[in-house]
Amino acid sequence: MKHEKSCGTIIIDQNKVLVIGVKDDEGRLFWSFPKGHQEDVESDMETAIRETREEVGLETEIIDEKPIYASHLIHDGTAVKDIYLFLAKITGGEIKPQEGEVEQVQWVDFEEADKYFSDYYKDAWSEAKKRKM
């Protein structure tokens, strides 16, 4: 089975987590973390930082170099998306959703975030909460 790789960040600030609303292939909104595909010469962390800047306008610094892994089937079950997420903190920038990619960006209360995610992101969020505590 084919694999596609994405890297991104989980940003927690003052008991809130940054989430993005994006549309799936059927046009339905779902909640995720800022992430995207790796370019040839980038490390996983470089990709995560670049994609966060592109998708939400924020400059970040990785605070935990051990990625949180998530995966799910894509392209009608013909491929797997491997997702590597890093805990990060904001170092600059302003929230600005990437036009044509990101529908919404919002801060969600730490305790409420579970409601926003599908199964594979719930597992990643659960791991992020353990590391943050």
Q: Quick gist of this model?
A:
This protein has about 130 residues and is of the alpha+beta class.
Q: What does this protein structure show overall?
A:
The structure is a single chain. By secondary structure, this protein is α+β, with helices and mostly antiparallel strands. It has one domain (2-132): Nucleoside Triphosphate Pyrophosphohydrolase, CATH 3.90.79. Helix content is 20%, strand content 45%. The chain is built from two helices and eight strands; from the N terminus they run ββββαββββα. It has helices at residues 44-56, 119-132, and strands at residues 2-13, 16-23, 29-32, 35-37, 58-62, 68-74, 79-93, 104-109. Strands 1, 2, 3, 4, 5, 6, 7 and 8 form an eight-stranded mixed β-sheet that branches. β1 and β2 form a beta hairpin. The longest helix has 14 residues, at 119-132. The N and C termini lie far apart (36 Å). The model has no long low-confidence stretch (mean pLDDT 92).
Short key terms for the protein model shown above:
133 residues; alpha+beta; 8-stranded mixed β-sheet; Nucleoside Triphosphate Pyrophosphohydrolase; globular
User: What is the SS-derived class?
Assistant: alpha+beta
Rounded average pLDDT: 92
CATH class division = Alpha Beta
Number of structurally distinct domains: 1
Low-confidence stretches: none
Ends apart, CA distance between termini = 36 Å
The CATH architecture assignment turns out to be Alpha-Beta Complex
| Contiguous helical run count | 2
Query: How much helix, percentage-wise, in residues?
Result: 10-25%
How many strands?
Answer: 8
What's the shape?
globular
Strand portion = over 45%
SSE pattern: EEEEHEEEEH
Largest sheet: 8 strands, mixed
Radius of gyration in whole Å, from Cα?
14 Å
Q: Could you please say which CATH topology applies here?
A: Nucleoside Triphosphate Pyrophosphohydrolase
Name the CATH homologous superfamily. Nucleoside Triphosphate Pyrophosphohydrolase
